[in-house]
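Re: beginner question about structure tokens

> Can someone show what the tokenized structure looks like for a real chain? I only ever see the sequence side.

Sure, here's an example I had lying around. Input first:
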Amino acid sequence: MVRGDMDEEEARRIRLADLILRLRRAGIMEQRVLAAMEAVPRDLFVPPEGRRDAYAERALPIDCGQTISAPVIVGMMTAALDLNPRDRVLEIGTGSGYQCAVLAKLCRRVYTIDRFRTLAAAAESRFKTLRLGNITTMVGDGTKGWPEAAPFDKIIVTAATDALPEALFEQVVVGGIIVAPLGPQDGVQKLKRLVRTQDGFTASDLADVRFVPLIPGTAARL
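And the corresponding structure tokens:
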């Protein structure tokens, strides 16, 4: 191994150690979540020009005007889903595929939807590189969910909306969990954890966040 490769590996180990420390400081202690975050190479999911900042604690731009969420936000949303190995999960907003790849380490199957064909195709390529065979992708309107594959044990929404589409409420099982940023699309939102009960949903706040908007339909070209 050449010296440059050794330096690269050492730098990545340091970045990962720092990431795990930040996750723990944010109160994310579940070992399975930490192990999944450690196992997914975040630098694979950002454009080449942004890879030096891949583990920085901020959202980073990707194609189609979208972003990859900051690592602690990904960890927080993952932990809030309380995943188990039997779960079937619906993700609205594939984006780079990073959040989806983390989820795939923790559950039986992830169904992920994006309105941009470019993003979905790039994410699928990354999933193949990482040999993640339990992910099904679709280009479509995330506001409609995925009725053909419903119901889901957990649903995660990685784009902001004032109110969740009714279809998503209908597609999660009783006892299931939805994690989503709710609030104005041009301002600060509340990251919410919604648990379905026999009588409706109970909600709790997780953090103040900023996400790109949840937009109905599919993109015309991309």
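Each token stands for a local structural state, so reading them left to right follows the chain. The first strand starts at residue 60 and ends at 61.
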